[in-house]
Design a protein that fits this description.
four-stranded parallel β-sheet; alpha/beta; about 240 residues; about 50% helix; Rossmann fold; three-stranded antiparallel β-sheet; binds S-adenosylmethionine
């Protein structure tokens, strides 16, 4: 049954708050579907319409009933559709995840289902003194991927600071993906400097990005905090901490 129809029909039960809660729940089901479809490779596999048998093979599925359940949720949320026994992607969000900016959108979903869910799930016990668990560092690479979303806004602000300055040496503390360094270089090609991060996985991501962007002569990525730098690394014209 169509999920939207099922939720609408709950109105007749006249249980105060139920309809609104179910509307919210519908959003949560969609987020969880997209998470599972992304992580399992289903979204990628459906870049081309695919029948069930091909999906089982492509995704190396051993428990086919779970794939069937996932496909059903995909259909119910209208993220997927099926025609002539072939499944394809219908929903705007799932389509966007396969698009050019998809990696950062996928990272938003991954953070929401993993880190943020865990934080709320464990909050009560932790408030009562249970050991604090995983911290943000453990999803540093996911945070670094989704915080690139802010790039266009930050770029405007950066432009006013770095345009026409030559030379321009930058220290980016907590550099994440390194996108800030790239933005600075886009605005001012004289810019050079250092990206610093305490998270090993993030440092790896930033280092790879700097290589991909062809900026290895301009920027170095360091693993560590501010105390890991020496005086000879500076001075800096701009220090960012975002
Ligand atoms: C919210 S993220 C922001 C990343 C990046 N600046 C951006 O806007 O995408 C904060 C980053 O700071 C790093 N970090 C936290 N404490 C740090 C410290 N003491 N020194 C350097 N980096 C740190 C984290 O590992 C994380 O990658």
């Amino acid at each position: 049954m169509n999920l939207k129809y099922a939720i609408t029909s709950l109105r007749i039960l006249k249980i105060s708050g139920l309809y609104h809660l179910m509307k919210d729940w519908q959003v949560s089901v969609r987020i969880h579907f997209i998470f599972a479809a992304y992580e399992s490779g289903l979204l990628k596999a459906l870049n081309q319409p695919c029948d069930r048998k091909t999906l089982i093979k492509k995704l190396e599925v051993k428990r086919t009933e779970l794939l069937d359940a996932l496909l059903e949720v995909g259909l119910a949320t209208k993220e997927l559709a099926v025609k002539n026994e072939k499944f394809f992607i219908k929903g705007k969000r799932s389509k966007a995840i396969l698009g050019a900016d998809g990696d950062m959108l996928a990272a938003v979903i991954q953070a929401s289902v993993t880190y943020y869910s865990d934080a709320y799930r464990n909050l009560t016990a932790r408030m009562h003194g249970e050991e604090l668990g995983e911290n943000l560092d453990e999803i540093g690479d996911i945070v670094a991927r989704f915080s690139k979303i802010t790039e266009p806004i930050i770029k405007e602000f950066l432009a006013s600071l770095v345009r026409d300055k030559s030379p321009m040496t930058v220290l980016d503390v907590g550099c994440g993906s390194g996108f800030l360094l790239r933005s600075i270089h886009d605005i001012n090609s004289n810019a050079n400097g250092i990206g610093l991060d305490t998270d090993k996985a993030v440092v790896e991501q930033a280092t790879n990005n700097i290589i991909t962007w062809g900026l290895t002569n301009q920027f170095k990525i360091h693993h560590g905090d501010i105390y890991s730098l020496s005086e000879k690394n500076g001075p800096f014209d701009l220090i960012s901490l975002i």
